[in-house]
Amino acid sequence: MSAKQEFVDNAKSGKILARKCSKCGDLHLATVYFCKKCGNKGFENAVLDGTGTIVTYTIITIPPAGFEKYTPYAWVVLKLGKSGLRVSGFMTGIKTPADLPIGTNVKITGFDDRGIIVERQ
Amino acid sequence: MEKVCVLGAGSTKYGRLDDSISDITIQASVDAIDSAGIEPKEIKAGYISNVFGVADKQVHLGPVVMTNLGISERPSLSIESACGSGSVAFREAFANVAGGFYDAVLVTGVEKVTHTGTEWTTTYFSYCSDFFYEGGAGASFPGLFASIARAYLNEFKATEEDFAEVAVKNHDNGLLNPKAHLRKKITVDDVMKSDVVASPLKLYDCCPFSDGASSVILCNESFAKEHNKDYIQVIGSGRGGSPAALQDREHMTTIPSTKIAVEAAYKMAGITPKDIDFAEVHDCFTVAEIIDTEDLGFFEKGQGVQAVREGQTKRNGQIPINPSGGLKSKGHPIGATGVGQIVEVYDQLTGKAGKRTIKDAKIGLTQNFGATGASCAVHIFQSV
Ligand SMILES: CC(C)(COP(=O)(O)OP(=O)(O)OC[C@H]1O[C@@H](n2cnc3c(N)ncnc32)[C@H](O)[C@@H]1OP(=O)(O)O)[C@@H](O)C(=O)NCCC(=O)NCCS
Ligand SMILES: [Zn+2]
After folding, report:
1. Does B133 touch chain A (CB under 8 A)?
2. pLDDT, tens digit, for every residue of A22-70?
3. Rounded CA gap, B56 and A50, in Å?
4. Distance of CA B262 from the midpoint of ligand 1 (Å)
């Protein structure tokens, strides 16, 4: 199974598959092949809880193809709880910026044709 | 290393154009050749930057251009680096002339997309992002920059009205540029009342989708001297990279590739930000111009908004930014933009910029990036 498929399968159950560098301990999303800090190729899998907080976001009113039926929706960057690792995804049910201040608690709930799905905690 | 000069420059109008992608590429190239006062036979190679040739049914543009210039035997290549394609093509041409491989080359950038409509273009542009995390999760380009804008508003003392000032200034400059796409005076109020595209960015915070082509002739110094025409010298060139996805950047309000590129360019030129008389920067969205002016070293981090409020980046300000109107008003034909910025610097430094001339300017800088700044190239030019 490719690293990406493994990552997707984890996201489907609300988890983030990360890789911990076996040399320096730096954490990466599992879609990376070499450590950005030390260049090492060896990693250990680390399955992280998909809960975290909003780092930044936007609410999109002019969408790319395939997203018309969800508009408006939010695209968000979130920071995972303990590790601080960041990941991005799609979030529905958000109409105005007042609905989603930076720092809002969110969780990953799945993965489908909208990418990683994020919801309020 | 040979000294490298820009001997001629030309551009089509930017906007909605009827002619085909190959026609406009050739028109801009012929303009540049005429401006340089050379014969096509003197061109030893062609560098063509373009992203979505597929939209107008022509990729592999190089040979089509060279054939129409009567020099089909000359080598050419096409370069794609998203919105930063033009400056990357220029850099490759620069390196080849500096390295002595060719004495004179053509660099032409082009894009032709407006006929495809809003949805097609929004969708295809999103392919320039790290698609698995960004475009594939519904992030449009305005959406990605809106996320950067949101982070900036959160981190610094800035307001949406401050961003709007950038659009107002660039529209004022574009009014004086006959080739600009959106030639219309606007106010902060107009920006604030325009429709939201991706909050907090509104229509007037965004550059438009544009068609257009721009072209320059690059040559070594002895070739330039023999030809008895106005020319400018390339004194600095730098490139850099950033993580492809926004999530992987430690700070969302700075673009690492710009900093790496400009540091290399300043070093090559042996100058500092204070020596720059004006700059054409990548203002695909209003917030981007503010971040660019900080990353390029003109202002401290977070101070870019204050500079805009004080008018320091206007044509008569301390460091004029985007006298051409920038991507915002002049337009953003993505494969052409990086070359178009250099056309503006050439026009400014050779006295061809008409009413938008920056007084006494001797050194100009261009900064052009791809996608959310995942790649960037900076060039510095001096009048001779
Ligand atoms: C904002 C955006 C969605 C508008 O879509 P569009 O297809 O250009 O819109 P339309 O063609 O329907 O234009 C509607 C009107 O708004 C005007 N307009 C379009 N874009 C404009 C802009 N950015 N600023 C001001 N006016 C604009 C058009 O001229 C047109 O006016 P008209 O009806 O008087 O002729 C689109 O321009 C956009 O996404 N821009 C960003 C491009 C981008 O991401 N580039 C890559 C950067 S990294
Ligand atoms: Zn490591």
Report:
1. yes
2. 999 999 999 899 999 999 999 999 999 999 999 999 999 999 999 999 9
3. 43
4. 30
* Residues whose CB falls within 8 Å of the CB of residue B54, separated by 6 or more in sequence, listed in order: none
Q: Do A58 and B139 touch (CB under 8 A)?
A: yes
The 10 Å Cβ neighbour count of residue A72 is 19
pTM, full prediction: 0.97
Reported confidence tier of residue B110, pLDDT bands at 50, 70, 90: very high
Nearest residue in chain A measured CA to CA from B130:
A88
Got the DSSP string for B137-170?
Answer: GT--HHHHHHHHHHHHHHHSS--HHHHHHHHHHH
Q: Which of residues 193-222 of B touch A (CB under 8 A)?
A: 195-201
Q: Which amino acid belongs to residue B291? A: I
**What is the per-residue pLDDT across B23-46, written as a single tens digit (0 to 9) for each?**
999 999 999 999 999 999 999 999
* Ligand 1 close to Cβ of residue B84 (< 6 A): no
CB A51 within 8 A of CB A105: yes
DSSP B12: P
The minimum CA-CA distance between B289 and chain A, rounded to whole Å, is 19
Q: Residue B160, SS3?
A: helix
Rounded CA-CA distance B320/B236 in Å is 19
Structure tokens given for B178: 């006959």
Catalogue the active-site residues of B. Answer: 83, 332
B251 touches chain A (CB under 8 A): no
| Side chain identity, residue B227 | H
The answer for B272, left when phi > 0, alpha when psi is -120 to 50, beta otherwise, is beta
Calculate the alpha carbon distances from B266 to B96, B178, B241 in Å: 20, 32, 17
Contact A56 B248 (CB under 8 A): no
Q: Which residue has the tokens 């129409």?
A: B68
Residue written as tokens 């003197």?
B42
Asked if residue B324 lies in contact with residue B300, where contact means CB atoms within 8 angstroms, the answer is no
- The answer to ipTM > 0.85 is yes
Q: Structural domain tally of chain A? A: 1
Residue B180 CA to residue B172 CA, distance in Å, equals 11
- For residue B116, what are the CA distances in angstroms to B64, B83, B180, B211? 22, 18, 21, 11
Cβ proximity of B148 and B283 under 8 Å: no
Q: To which residue do tokens 């300017």 refer?
A: B361
Of the candidates B132, B150, B245, which has its C-beta nearest A56's C-beta? B150
Give the pLDDT confidence of B53-95 residue by residue, as tens digits: 999 999 999 999 999 999 999 999 999 999 999 999 999 999 9
Question: In angstroms, how far is the first alpha carbon of chain B from the final one?
Answer: 18
Per-domain residue ranges for chain B? 4-116+209-227
Tell me the residue range of the domain where A111 lies. Answer: 3-120
Mean of pLDDT values over B130-141: 98
Instruction: Give the residue from B201, B159, B214 showing the smallest Cα distance to B29.
Output: B214
Does domain B4-116+209-227 sit in CATH 3.60.110.10? no
